């Protein structure tokens, strides 16, 4: 029993220290609400899930004081937004730095063929992201508009751009590529025929300008539903990272119709 009480004492001491640490941070935030972004930048590791649970618990304790509850809830929301903004900025900077290293490695290749092979290799390892492709695209765009750059350099950057863009396109889930093709078809009869083709198994071909892909009604329906649900919930989860350009009212309306057609004719 003594051993158990000692363990309980140690556990309670740890909890007390955690609560004290959360309270100290909460006091800092309450003392400077407008400086929350700076506080987050300096003390990001302290804004843990446990801290937000603690903040919520403290807010709930003011059950008879709506004004105090709202004040703490507002502080919590501001902190969450600041943490998300900080994490997004950090992730973007890390991606930018990683893309810069890859870009320099590609540019320093001994030949155009070697550079293209590096891009293909990155794509195979799923390390070719939109940040790197954007960097290559900007380099090509700047070269194209420059009168001071040799044509040979422009040709090299153009080939790198085409290789990177082609590989990035092939990394997009085929269901998303099929959906984007289908919603461009205005005629309902033609769209229904295209759906039948998409659900007919056969040899898949992937090219620069033409794709011949197929999937199942269930998989296509799942992707359509995911995009539509994400739009209505105003979220952009990792599952639809490749489909963010589809999150607008006009496209969503077309997807709703396409979902109904799939459900009615193929499920």
Can you walk through the features of this model?
With 267 residues, this protein is mainly alpha-helical. The protein folds into three domains: 89 residues, no CATH class; 63 residues; 93 residues, no CATH class. Helices cover 73% and strands 1% of the residues. A two-stranded antiparallel ribbon has the order 1-2. α5 packs parallel to α7. The chain is extended and about 75 Å long.
E-strand count: 2
Structural category: mainly alpha
Which sequence of strands runs across the widest sheet? Answer: 1-2
Q: Terminal Cα separation, in Å?
A: 63 Å
> Considering DSSP H and I runs of 4 or more, what fraction of the residues is helical?
over 70%
Strand content: under 5%
Low-confidence stretches: 235-239
Keyword list:
two-stranded antiparallel ribbon, 11 helices, 267 residues, single chain, extended, 2 strands, 1% strand, mainly alpha, At4g37920-like
Secondary structure layout:
Blueprint: H1 2-31, H2 36-43, H3 49-61, H4 66-107, H5 112-124, H6 130-144, H7 151-171, H8 174-182, H9 188-198, E1 205-206, E2 211-212, H10 217-232, H11 249-266
Antiparallel strand pairs: 1-2
Helix pairs in contact: 1-3, 2-4, 3-4, 4-6, 5-7, 6-7, 8-10, 10-11
Quick description:
With 267 residues, the protein is an all-alpha fold.
